Amino acid sequence: MSRIGFIGLGTMGLPMAANLLRKGYAVTVYNRTPAKADELASEGAAVAATPREAADRADVVITIVSNDSAVEEIYYGADGILNGLRPGTKLIDSSTISPALARRLAADASAAGGSFLDAPVTGSKDGAIQGTLLFMVGGAEETIEACRDIFLAMGREIIRMGESGSGATAKLGHNAIVGINAAGLIEGMAIAAKGGLDMESFVRVVQGGGAASKQADLKGPKIVAGDYSVQFALSLMLKDLRLASVLSDGMGVPTPMLEAAKSMFQAGDAKGYGDDDLAALSRVYEEWIGKRIGR
């Protein structure tokens, strides 16, 4: 059974690493905030002092951190993964990053004798806890097959999107839809709230009608309850929409709805809601309509 190095123990990474431990894998973890490793250490994980140390102990290294700059530091820093990579090591990045960075990592990993997959996920925090994530993967088919059991210890499905960078492209297209859907849901809820409707009843209508969506199921009840605990942070949604905007501009794809959603999440971030769940975008609408949407 492969030895795993796992780097990044945030909202998604910690439960993903925990599922690997529960499936019997030997896991060495690293996190920039060391205290976050304590829970996994109590479950049997080894703790590394640097990303390079985590990679040195592993056959497969999984990374999931917040953005391009964090990924670059983990891979290219003085104590980074690529600084002395052992030949044959397989690298899986499940962060949401730019396709250009994913392609660069794949080329540099190959030059060092390793292999790289860009494998972002969808399924939110609950999917990470339950082990039901979907991986959208860019990279060589043989590398994906070699890591299949590892993916399926954390998720329910692996979809190969194409060559390196295609997983990252798929995730940005996917999250553009998520952001647009979420903003649309909240705008509709603002109309209903301003009209004096019972919001629990309205969410049931949305869930049972043509406006039904995963976002309605995930965020509608949270907004009604005034629950902004993080499944997916507003600031990360904004980061992903910005990446999608840059990508679409470079490809010449007109994206008026993406730009509108990005502006909405920028407003939420400017109001100080970046560390809350993206459902906190509803609080911006509450200010605009002068009325609470949720409790």
From TrEMBL:
The protein's GO terms of the molecular function aspect are: NAD binding; NADP binding; oxidoreductase activity
The record's active-site residues are K171
Which SUPFAM superfamilies does the UniProt record give?
A: 6-phosphogluconate dehydrogenase C-terminal domain-like, NAD(P)-binding Rossmann-fold domains
Q: Does the keyword Oxidoreductase apply?
A: yes
PROSITE patterns from the UniProt entry: 3_HYDROXYISOBUT_DH (PS00895)
- InterPro entries per the UniProt record, alphabetical: 3-OH-isobutyrate_DH-rel_CS (IPR002204), 6-PGluconate_DH-like_C_sf (IPR008927), 6PGD_dom2 (IPR013328), 6PGDH_NADP-bd (IPR006115), HIBADH-like_NADP-bd (IPR029154), HIBADH-related (IPR015815), NAD(P)-bd_dom_sf (IPR036291)
Per the UniProt record, one Pfam family is: NAD_binding_2
Q: What is this protein called?
A: NAD(P)-dependent oxidoreductase
